[in-house]
Each structure stands twice: as C-alpha cells, then as structure tokens.
Amino acid sequence: MCDTHHTHDTTPHKGLEHDGHDQEHKTWSRRSFIQALGIAGSGSMFLGSNLVSASAPSPFTSAIADAETDNILILIRLSGGNDGLSTVIPIQQYDTYANARPNIYIPESKVLKLTDDFGVPTYMNALEPMWGEGRFKAAHGVGYENQSLSHFTGSDIYANTDLTTTGFSGLNTGWMGRHFEQCYPDYLINPPEAPAAIQIGNLSNLVFQGEETNYAFVTNNIDQLEEIAQTGFFYDIENAPFDNCMYGDQLRFLRGVANTTYEYAGKIHEAYERGQNQVEYQDNGFARQLALLARLIKGNLGTKVYMISMGGFDTHGNQPLAHERLMTNLSIAVQNFYDDIAFTQQDDKVLSMTFSEFGRRIFENGSNGTDHGKAAPTLFFGSGLNGSAFVGDHPSLDNPNGRGNLEYTMDFRDLYATVLAEWLCVPIPLVEQHLLEHPYNPINLGFNCSGTEFPDIAMDSDPPTLPDTPPSPDGMDPDPDALAAIVHRPYYPTENTPHIYLEMPVAAHVDIQLYNILGQNVGTVFNEMMLEGSAEINIRDRMRDSLSTGKYIYQIRVGEERMSKSVMLM
C-alpha cells in the first residue's frame, strides 16, 4: 500500500506523482477482488477460503505436453514497482546517481562491485557466490515505449504484452496463457497430467490467462499451497444441493471445479512427498515459496512454469530500509533455492527471472522514497545462464525526461521472446504470435535452443506455408500441419441459437462431441466429412434441442488434432 502521509514537493522531480494514484490503488484492489470471484475473466474463483483455477484437470482424462524441453521457468514478480537504481548501481554514473538521491543513495562503501561499471548493494551479497559461479545476469533498462506509470495498467501490459492497454481496456489474455493455449488446444477436455503452471498470489495477474481459461493452478498465498502439498486436500462440497434450474447448474459447476481440482492437489501432494529440502531456508513468505517450489521440482511434479510474488516495492516512503529488507530476503532465498536443487543436479534446468510493473524515478521524493518511474533491470538466475554478466545498455542518468524518468533501452518483450524460444524451445513463429506479432529480437542470455546466432540475427519470421491438398484417396489422414490451421469459435446469431463456426483448410472427417461441465459426454454435434471451407453448425438443431440451459464444452477431433472451447446454451 502507498504511504498516504508522505509529502509531495512541487519540483519537477521530487514527489511528483501521477493523478489519481491513491484512487488507482482502490480500483486495483476492487479489480483484484472481482477477478478472484471469476467475474472478470481470470478463470479463477474462490471455493471457501481458497482460490482455485476453474480449468483444473478432469479426473477421467489427461494430455501429454508437447514441449521439447524439460527446462523449468520461475517468474518472480516484484509487486509495486521495483527501484532499479537501488538494485543495480551504475558505478560509471555514480556522482549523478548520488546527487539525485542525497538521502537515500547507496554509499560506495556499501556497493558490492561485480564489475568496474556495475554493482549491487552489499545487502544483496548472498548473490555474490552465484555471480562467481556464472548463475546471475541482469538486463539493463527494461521497459517499453510510452510506459504506463499505473500499477494495474503496467501489470496488465507486462502480462498481456499489449501496449495499447489503458485502464480497464486491453487484451485479456497473457503471454504464457497464449503459449499454453497452443500447447494444450484440447485443454478443457484433456488437460495435462501435472499443472501446466502454478501461481501463488497476485489474483489480478493475466500472465496465464487464455481465451477460454486460466492455465495456472492458483492459490491465494503460500499457506494454502503448503496445505495442499502437505495434505493433498483442497475443498469438499460433495453435499452441494442440486435442482433443475440455472442455480443448480452453477452449483454443479462449482462441484466439478472442486472435484477436478482434487486431482492436481493429489499430484502436488505426491511430488511434495517425493521431494525434500536439503537446505535451511529463512522463515519469511518469499523464502517459503521458493522452498516449496524446490521440493515440488525435486519431486518431479512435471510443471514447467511457476510464478511467485514478493510485495512491498511501492516505496514512496522510507525506501532505504524497505528495499534493503526486500532484496536481502530475495537474495538469500534465491541462493538457498539454487543450492537446494543443485543436490539433485537440477539447477541447470531451472531459470528464474524477475519482473515488476514499472521502475522508479531517478530523483528521491520528499519522504525518503521514490515515485513511479519507467525502466528498471530484470534479474535472471540459474546455471543455465552459462556465465554471469550485465546485459544491454544502462540508461543515462544525465538526460531524464521531464519527470526524472529513466528511458528504456531494452524492450521487455525481447526478453520474453528469448525465454520462450531459447529456454522453453517454442518455435520462433509461435513466439511472435504469443507476443502479438512482436518481431523476434532475442537477447543473448547464455542459452540457445533455436540455434539463433547472437547478436546478428537473420531469419524469416513468416509462418510456414500450409498445404492445401485434400486427403489422399487411400483414406490417410490429412497433413497435420494443415490441420493446425483449423479455425473455430462459438457465436450466437440470435440469443437462443448457439453455433460453432468452423473453418477447414483441407477436406477431412470432422467429429464434434459435446460435454457438460462435469466432463460427461452429452452427445454428438457433428460427425461427417467436411470439405475445405467454412461451416456454421447450429448446436441446438444438431442436438434436437434436448439440452438444458448452462455452460458446455465442445471438442473437435480431426485426424490427430484435438481442440475445444466452452459455449453457453441459453
């Protein structure tokens, strides 16, 4: 929370805050609450005191992830806007830095010099061994053009990569959600054996949100995830009442969510029991998060992406003490985590990266703090970095904008693209698609899955040409590459006539099955040969209007392709 008692100076740099800052925090909290209830498209909801994903696995089906790597990614959100100039100290600009912050700068005696040009505060000295072992990189000046200084807009942009986001308007899917949508096109019917992602906290974040669902197993805090890991139990609503109206449908939906959540709760518990911590962690929330992740990873849960959080970075006041506490805890916990997973030789398979909704200004304000700014560093940890370094160009402190902001020198989407393509081994055309057609411009972070040469990049980012030939006369299935171009979506020409729009790039046999929210098959919508082109399939006509009002899931099967979406029958 912001300190509502700090004073604001009228100079261009000290304490100048954007309009409506306190109101924004109220709005942000309300928005988080709405999304936690599953009203604003977050794909999650509360069952009792727990927040769970509404797209947990069905107990009678499973899917195999098609990722080409067993690498793991941990996203570390520094919530509130981390101050980059208290994280990476620009020694080559030290005088300018110190003059801008006469009361809160890090004295030279308390700067741990990692190179001749850059260092970190000595309270982050737990990272010194990681630097020496080649397990720590920092990317300078990360941001984007016309960076938002709003907490919730900035958070959304870093999650959805949509630079047109303003206020409550913006794309409601996240970069990792779009990735998982590609990995699991039939997720609603056949989710993976283990959670695709696990997220602790940050109810309003869009990182894992897809068009149809949120792909993360979400808990509101570390206490809840620890309880699930230790007991394998989530929430019991077996005795929920039923009736034939919409109210009953919603109760059945809640029961289905809870029942399917049990499956992942059990998987998490099994991994927790198999793994063990071999390093002693500190007793704070952030350290507990990493300790639990270490145990799940060592227990071979199978989840590829995790997101954890540390709050408190909105340091408008008393920044020196607040930032020291936060970054001390982060540094020690990260070092302990990598030492822990090194016991099972998994440290080279786990990459961690920090992100925050914005940085902070060069100049201190009137409350021994800093106000919302722009560019800030992104920190990377892991043996897979193959060497420690400061990456990119540090922004100049000599030419800030009118409000004393650092201008970005590295687009955050280039870091996301590098992690997707070079660490998670996602094909580059898909990386650009997940990042809303942002051109692939990778950063040399020390890992390379695609074979891209750094720093000179020459590649054709056009998507591959899809064949347009029909299936062969001998009855063989059509080319899988062609089937990957199938387009489908539900739509409603009138209020009570739900349709499925289907666009086929080749002629093929199409089977469409309908499932209720408990995962039970309720009938066949379509099962016949379809020629190349588009079709509009009336669900109620095909099902002879025998369906009750409520939410359903259709599954399209064409050859080896499986895809699904939800549809509301009114």
Keywords:
570 residues, alpha/beta, Alkaline Phosphatase, subunit A, 13 helices
Summarize the structure.
Residues 1-24 are annotated as: Disordered. The chain is 26% helix and 21% strand. The protein has 13 helices and 21 strands.
Kindly describe this structure.
Pfam families: DUF1501. The protein contains 13 helices and 21 strands. The protein is an alpha/beta fold and 570 residues long. Among the domains are: 74-233 and 303-435, Alkaline Phosphatase, subunit A; 480-569, Immunoglobulin-like, CATH 2.60.40.3080. The strands form 5 sheets. Strands 3, 7, 8, 9, 10, 11, 12, 13 and 14 form a 9-stranded mixed beta sheet that branches. Strands 18-17-20-21 form a 4-stranded antiparallel beta sheet. Strands 4-6-5 form a 3-stranded antiparallel beta sheet, with no helix packed on it. Strand 5 and strand 6 (118-121) form a beta hairpin. Helix 7 (246-274) packs across helix 8 and helix 8 (285-298) runs parallel beside helix 9 (319-342).
